[in-house]
Design goal:
With 779 residues, the chain is an alpha+beta fold. It has 20 helices and 27 strands. It has five domains: 12-235, Response regulator (Rossmann fold); 255-355, Beta-Lactamase, CATH 3.30.450; 419-527, Beta-Lactamase; 528-622, Orthogonal Bundle (Helix Hairpins); 623-779, Heat Shock Protein 90, CATH 3.30.565. The strands form seven sheets. Strands 10, 11, 12, 13, 14 and 15 form a six-stranded antiparallel β-sheet that branches. The protein has a five-stranded parallel β-sheet with strand order 4-3-5-8-9, with helices on both faces. Strands 17-16-20-19-18 form a five-stranded antiparallel β-sheet, with helices on both faces. The longest helix has 62 residues, at 357-418.
Amino acid sequence: MGRRINAWRCDQEFVEYSECMKKTFTGGFETCCGARAPDEPAANPAGVTYRQSDDDAQSGQDSLEPVAVQGGNGSNDRDSVLGAEGSIGTGVCRKGEPVIAEPDRVEPLRILVLDDCEVDAELMWHELEKGGVSFEGQRAATEHELLESLDSFNPDVAVVDYCVPGYDGMAAIAAIHGKRPDIPVIVVSGRMGEEIAVDTVKSGAFDYILKSNLKRLPSAVLRAVREAEEQRIHQRTQVALRESEERFRSLVQLSPDAIYVLSGDEFVFSNPAGLKLMGAESPSDLVGRRLDDHLVASIKSALEKNSKDDGSGSVGSSPTTSAVVRLDGTCVPVEINVAVVRLDGEPMIQLVARDISERLRSEQALRRAYDELEKRVKERTRDLLLANTKLEQEIVERERVELELRANRAFIDAVFNSLPGHMAVLDRRGIIVAVNESWQRAADESGVELSKAGVGVNYLEVCRRAAETGDTSAEAALCGIRAVLRGEQNEFSLEYQGHGKDAEQWATLFVTPLKRQEGGAVVTHVDITKRKRAELEIQRLHNDMYRYGRVSLMGELAAAIAHELRQPLSALKTNAEAAIDLLGLGVLDVGELRDILGDMIADINHAAEVISKMRALLAKGQSTKQPLNLNKLLDEVVPLIRERAIMRGVSIQIDTNPSLPEVSADRIQLQQVLMNLMINALDAMKDAPLGERKLTIWTGMASPNEVQISVSDTGTGLPAGKSEVIFQSFYSTKPDGMGMGLAICRSIVQAHGGRIWAVNNRGQGATFHITLPVKAQDQ
């Protein structure tokens, strides 16, 4: 059950209860309802505000109407006797006097009633409403409901029926105060003796009311709430007082000023700062000593003047500057305040002394500093005048510099926008902060909105999204840009081909770090389609030129090739004739015939291998690099020139390194280079004596990362000063040569990342050296 009453009018019965409660608050607990003397002024200790109703004003009655009634929480334990009206510590309120309530409470009171009879609870609600109490009520019929309501309802006051079936008032009081000792409990009963009533109050009940006198319930509730709040305020005040005393004690003990208390002419107290000022190690060194032993005359006179107690409480003095005498006889300048205070009715002298030694030294230093400052101010004023003139000149110069900076900025912007490459400036997070006009035009032409690739967009995210679609060049660009932004690489470049309708387009991505403390990078996309097409055309011409060189070599090696083919063909013919003869004997030897046919197949394979090598040398195709061992490459090439060397009386000597690492190269092109050098060596030795013609081929390591192959002859050697010229196109020492062989050799070697050069031997002839990089582990 819940009820709320916000305003009320005093009727005759409530006025009597108000008079009773006022007498209780102002005169203490009384045995009966005593009436106030007619001439005694009405008190309003709670400060409740009233207004006279319009009806009462017209009728001339003195009943008052409170604007609002408030209350609070609290509890009291008191001894009392049963009153004439069956109450404890109550009185009858006189008409016109208010019910005492807390003036600062706005919300209604929360009243919990423990009663198994709902009708009795309704009567209590009625009396409370009739008494003008603003409240919210809740009834509990059992112990369980009582305990549950204490948590959920959070009452301000509890009204308990003493006789609840299976649960008496004493147990209810103990249960309520066990959980909420701050809640006042009022016991209500149909009948009870004085002894039991006193026991309930001693057990913690605030008041006891008979059900036949429920008109007392409003005043008892309001009084209980008020006194409970006063109890809490008192407890908080005591706690605050103890805390204040502790703070004051800490302030005195920790005060940097010396504090002394004197009784008559003797010290009775000193804080640690006071002991330190006097040079005492403990209070016993100072307590009991006379004041005259430690104060100079000027302080004594001030003390005598201000220590005259006129009985008004305390007398204080203005700060006095003088000196005190320490225990060791030295004097310390101090600033002292003297006050006379009363402690337990006895006048005591309180001295507060502050050591001003450091202050005096500071004042002296300050005076010296002031004089020095005056001098420096004059000097500074002169300097400021000169500086002001200089500043004016600097302002003029700064304005000129700013104009130049703006002009330079405009120039830089013009250059930036005039560059043909598509350029964007990224900050250290990869966000685009500036783009040139070429970048904007490229975005417009490709249909890409600048909101997706313009200023403010994270370019790393643009590359990442492109990489997720399978664009490998975008993935490589993402890694390269990140490396430059993090300072892991000084620069990054990448050639990539367009996709879709831009498949024929080529571009180069350049990423360079932005030279500033905040970091960043400059990303440039340069269209290299024309250059790429020219490179492809040059590559095609090179391939044609290489093929022409190989065709020329085949022409020069025609006799060797014919010899290579003649040998397997002759063997094939001989084996075929032997097979025919074997068949003519009439006796078939299958095993011998099988051997003859096996030899024939081997000869056919040999001839086919020679033809395949020739076709590979003459084939027209793209360059393909693969892991190669130069020693095995020599085994393939030397047989092709061996017949020609024999015909010219040249001996061939091969010196190889068996642990030579592999290189990554095009097999056909390196075969072409070696054959060209070997044929040139054979031609160079045509005029040498027959016994001195020797071709030497050597392989080995030029460095830990390079392999070397050298071709040496004993011919006429190189013309003086022509070791570089011989590699130029159309230069030849042969009367019928075109001068393309060595030029092609150099082009092939350089395309493989190697070097080729020639030197004359110490004796006779020349040597051509070739170095090639060792194949990397991940190739």
